[in-house]
Structures are given as C-alpha cells and as structure tokens.
C-alpha cells in the first residue's frame, strides 16, 4: 500500500482542529495509541496497541525529508480477541530485534476524501499534524503531493513547521 505524507509541528491545536473539522464535515474519531518501535535494518517496524487492546504490526519505509513524501507500508492487524497473540509477537520481536523507542499519543482523526488528517498530542514531544493521502492504484506520487499540499495550505500549516522524520526520531533527538 502507498500513501503520501506530510508531518508538521502544531502551534495552535484548537485552531487546526477547528479547520480540520470544517474540512471533514464531522467531529474527529479519538484514538489512543501506544507504539513500540523495533530495531530494523531498513525502514521502520512498530507494534501499535490501541486502548481497546487490539493491535497492528506496521512495517513502513519513507524518506526523511520535509514536505509530501511517498510512504510504502504493510499492516498486520489483530482483533481484540488476539491480544495475547500480539503480546507474544511483541515479546518475540523485542528478543530478536531489540526496541528502539516508544511513542504514546492521543490522535484525533478527521477524514477528508482519501486523506486522513491526524492531529496528535504526543507524550514528551507536543502537538503535531500529519496528513496521509492514501493513493489509489492509478494515482501517481505527484497526484498525492498535490492533494497533500492543498490540504496543508487549507489547514494553515507553514513550511517552517514541517518535520522530516517520525516521532520516534524526534524522541531520539531529545535524549
């Protein structure tokens, strides 16, 4: 699967949430996420655990650069009934790969067409906005970048607020 992403620091979370809600036409879905990142040779691998104890193993690869960038990813989801399996898998991955870090966040999800707007409160980091334009098979990288830039402008996100890496990378820089 592929998407185009933009991530940025948010200075006024209330203002950007208001705009995102206007663009989506509905209130956000509130999601509690706890991500454990594992050490890997290429890309990133994380186990995302949700408040309902379901989980998703996510492998993704994207360049660390500001602005709209292509992200290639795979998802392996667990139902609530598989929580013991996700814990077991997490233990195996920790033993085999080691852990890189942990990112705990509260996410507000707004949908605008094929784009997920995430407004995140990240523990020990602050507030951020992330756009994920989910590309359809016939769409090019440029199509996704155009959609992302348009939403970036509508949300009032400035170029100087863009970040070029994942939250786990920012946490690494802070330690």
UniProtKB/TrEMBL annotation:
<dbReference type="GO" id="GO:0016462">
    <property type="term" value="F:pyrophosphatase activity"/>
</dbReference>
<feature type="domain" description="CYTH">
    <location>
        <begin position="1"/>
        <end position="173"/>
    </location>
</feature>
<dbReference type="InterPro" id="IPR033469">
    <property type="entry name" value="CYTH-like_dom_sf"/>
</dbReference>
<protein>
    <submittedName>
        <fullName>Jg1473 protein</fullName>
    </submittedName>
</protein>
<dbReference type="InterPro" id="IPR023577">
    <property type="entry name" value="CYTH_domain"/>
</dbReference>
<dbReference type="InterPro" id="IPR008173">
    <property type="entry name" value="Adenylyl_cyclase_CyaB"/>
</dbReference>
<dbReference type="Pfam" id="PF01928">
    <property type="entry name" value="CYTH"/>
</dbReference>
């Amino acid at each position: 699967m592929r998407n185009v992403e933009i991530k940025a620091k948010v200075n006024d979370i209330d203002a950007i949430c208001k705009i995102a809600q206007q663009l989506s036409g509905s209130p956000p879905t509130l999601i509690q996420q706890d991500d454990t990142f594992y050490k890997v040779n290429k890309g990133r691998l994380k186990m995302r655990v949700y408040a309902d104890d379901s989980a998703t193993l996510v492998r993704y690869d994207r360049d660390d650069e500001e602005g709209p960038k292509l992200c290639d990813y795979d998802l392996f989801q667990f139902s609530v009934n598989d929580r013991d399996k996700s814990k077991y898998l997490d233990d195996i991955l920790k033993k085999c790969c080691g852990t890189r870090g942990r990112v705990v966040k509260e996410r507000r999800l707004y949908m605008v067409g094929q784009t997920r707007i995430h407004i995140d409160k990240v523990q020990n980091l602050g507030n951020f906005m992330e756009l994920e334009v989910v590309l359809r098979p016939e769409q090019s990288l440029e199509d996704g970048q155009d959609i992302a830039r348009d939403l970036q402008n509508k949300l009032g996100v400035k170029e100087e607020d863009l970040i070029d890496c994942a939250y786990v990378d920012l946490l690494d820089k802070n330690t």
